[in-house]
Amino acid sequence: MDSFDPGRGRAFARFAAGDGADVDAAVAAARTALRGPWRQMGPAERGRILAKAAAMLRERAARFAVVESLDSGKRLSEAEGDLRGVARAFEYYAGAADKLHGEGLPLGRLYVGFTSQEPVGVVAQIIPWNYPLSTAARGIAPALAAGCTVVAKPAEQTPFTALMLAELLHEAGLPAGVLNVVTGTGAEAGAPLVAHPDIDHITFTGSVATGSAVMRSAADNVTRLVLELGGKSPLVVLADCDMNAALNGVVEAIYENAGQICSAGSRLVLDRSIADVFLGRLVAWVEKFRIGHGLTNPDLGPVNSRRQLDIIDAHVRRAVKAGNHVLTGGAIATSDAGGWFYQPTIISAQSAADPLVQEEIFGPVLVVQIVDGPDEALTAANATSYALVAGIYSQNITEALRFARDVDAGQVFINEWFAGGIEVPFGGNRKSGFGREKGMAGLRSYCKMKSVVARI
To answer: Does 375 share its domain with 401?
Structure first.
């Protein structure tokens, strides 16, 4: 299959189009490895392999970042930041591998009771195209730390860094069969993987529609799931905010990776008393953006595919037809590099019920909702079917913490969007999915608990 450079809109490399037979072979290899030397390896030794991989990733970060930028379209500086996060993820779970333990149970003098945490088994990882290496790492690293074996299916748009990561991990000492990567389409490789009876757990990141299909497929084998499905995340800016910090936060929240982030701050919920000044400054900033190929480190890079570009454009066209007001942008952009670009866009929504507010666009499109005060802001924040991330800018910490308490979201940012790191559990509620990745919660996602009781 061809892999395309989104910045030029042209194929730049080819990769294997895997199918059900390849999935069968990969799952069989993972099942065999689960019973082999990997099972006998102590947690500290697993940690040493992950630590070595972290060091190797830092040494080879430049190469990985260039490939990630070429394959996904993201700016090189963003890809370099992703690599730092990926290395840190392996470092974190290297340290956690020998800290995973059960608990003693207080059953009285006649009994000894305890729990243990065991690897869940063979794990399937379905990796999206927007953060190919980061998402792969946040699933693969804890799964390996827990003692699982893995079959990973990267998106057909962005296969290469997952293949490079598998090569690096085996070079770091991972036994054969412990990590397997099958490239190909969702229909030909992904569907057989999530339906495979020898898969013990699935971690899926992607759309609600595909996640629902994965759930139905997993149900036939009663396979465990972690689903991270997307969002329409509110970024609340109250009247007492630090305006410079809030402006920086809004720009980063929606325009990083051309808005192709499940946790993007795609809804600006803005207090009416500062709306004119805030939006004036925001529009002036965005209209100066330089658009270009990811390797040139522009202000805004391309979207991942022609298909995604058309989806974004269709969303905006419908919004304009419905009477929503475009403050800036609102059209497909051109670049000297060619490729698939969309103008950085800001649209003021007329109604909270509009699809513009309710549906995930997954592009560089910021939707503005004007509110009067904190209570209306909270109501607006909770008024979609998604509940992945929320954020607030306010210098009143009590007001901010009340918002964090009352908003429905898996993660809340206060005065900095994308705050935190691998240590912070991540995942959503409602249509944003369920289960958690990252942090120690992410490690426990790849474990099954066993209780043991002995009469003495």
So the answer is: yes
